[in-house]
Write a structure and sequence with these properties.
Structural class: alpha/beta
Number of domains: 2
Largest sheet: 4 strands, mixed
CATH class of the largest domain: Alpha Beta
Helix content: 10-25%
CATH topology of the largest domain: 2,3-Dihydroxybiphenyl 1,2-Dioxygenase, domain 1
Number of strands: 8
Number of helices: 3
Strand content: 35-45%
Oligomer: single chain
CATH architecture of the largest domain: Roll
Order of helices and strands: EHEEEEHEEEH
Distance between the termini: 44 Å
């Protein structure tokens, strides 16, 4: 029998640990849960969503953002979040309702990682 997966907690590499902690806590509202300067590592949390940050290991060939995708956050007020973040972060694409019935937008974090935020249109109409 295959093991049950309970959650996914990405680890983002950054050469700017303090700046990245600042972005996620001050701009996105995450809370710093743990930090270990010897390991150059931190753990952040918001509403049950967890992200770890770390400086790349010396044996890794790190030349900036190496992730070839994006991080997609399902949220409960995409319009309100857009209003808040659209002036605080670099925009990847502006808020839009797509054919797949998601209203979403994307920003870049301070490292260049793409962070997408979306809400199903059925949930938006129920909330209004």
């Amino acid at each position: 029998m295959m093991a049950k997966f309970n959650s996914l907690r990405p680890i983002l590499w950054t050469e700017k640990l303090d700046d990245t902690i600042g972005f996620y806590t001050q701009i996105l509202g995450f809370t710093l849960q743990e930090r270990d300067d010897d390991w150059q590592w931190a753990s952040l949390e918001k509403n049950g969503v967890e992200i770890m940050l770390t400086k790349p290991n010396q044996h890794e060939n790190f030349n900036g953002v190496g992730f070839t995708g994006s991080f997609y956050f399902n949220v409960d007020d995409v319009n309100g979040l857009w209003e808040d973040l659209s002036t605080k972060a670099k925009i990847c694409y502006e808020i839009e309702t797509f054919d797949w019935e998601m209203r979403e937008f994307a920003i870049y974090d301070n490292n260049g990682y793409i962070l997408q935020f979306g809400q199903h249109i059925d949930e938006i109409s129920k909330a209004e």
